[in-house]
Design goal:
The chain has about 150 residues and is mainly β. The protein folds into 2 domains: about 10-90, Aspartate carbamoyltransferase regulatory subunit, N-terminal domain (Alpha-Beta Plaits); about 100-145, Roll (SH3 type barrels). Helix content is about 15%, strand content about 40%. The chain is built from 3 helices and 11 strands, in the order E-H-E-E-H-E-E-E-E-H-E-E-E-E. The chain has helices at about 25-30, 65-75, 110-115; strands spanning about 10-20, 40-45, 50-60, 80-85, 85-90, 100, 105, 120-125, 130-135, 140, 145. The chain has a 5-stranded antiparallel sheet with strand order 2-3-1-4-5, covered by helices on one side. The protein has a 4-stranded antiparallel sheet with strand order 6-8-9-10, with no helix packed on it. A two-stranded antiparallel sheet has the order 7-11. The longest helix has 10 residues, at about 65-75. The radius of gyration is 16 Å and the shape is elongated. It starts with 11 loop residues before the first strand and ends with a strand. It binds zinc ion. Zinc ion binds next to loops.
């Protein structure tokens, strides 16, 4: 299959090498507004991954929390910052060891569900991503939890 070309953007952020099928979840996390110019590529050929998704967002830089959330659902992704059509920065996302406040613990008896306490999860496995609630110690795969921004 030939590599599809997705239009270049002038200024903004490209998230490349998103695990195929996960781009809409990434877009969800970024809560993209109608005003953002967004280009989505799905199931593109990738030497590294076989298939990949890609997301380009014009005039937008991501916060550290957003980057951490994306790393959880697309651990192979790389982040490319574009200025005036040039790549000014490229980073491979890294899954942090702990993640605070972004994951909602699904356990209704967990203290973070009952009280106003920031959640804290330990990442116990990278591929696929698995997490453990530091408070109630329950383990979940990343697809079982809700990620908030
Ligand atoms: Zn918990």
């Amino acid at each position: 299959m030939k590599q599809l070309k997705v239009d270049a953007i002038r200024n903004g952020t490209v998230i490349d090498h998103i695990t195929a099928g996960k781009v809409l979840k990434v877009a969800d996390i970024l809560n993209l507004q109608g005003m953002d110019l967004v280009m989505i590529g799905m199931n593109l050929a990738s030497k590294k991954l076989g298939k990949k998704d890609i997301l380009k967002i014009e005039n937008r830089e991501l916060s550290g929390e957003e980057v951490n959330s994306i790393a959880l659902i697309a651990p192979n992704a790389s982040l490319i910052i574009i200025k005036d059509y040039n790549v000014v920065k490229k980073v491979h996302l890294k899954i942090p060891e702990y993640i605070e406040n972004l994951i909602v613990c699904p356990n209704p008896k967990c203290i973070t569900s009952l009280e106003e306490i920031k959640s804290k999860f330990q990442i116990t496995s990278g591929k696929p991503v698995k997490v453990r609630c530091v408070y109630c110690e329950k383990k979940y795969s990343i697809d079982e939890v809700r990620i908030r921004i």
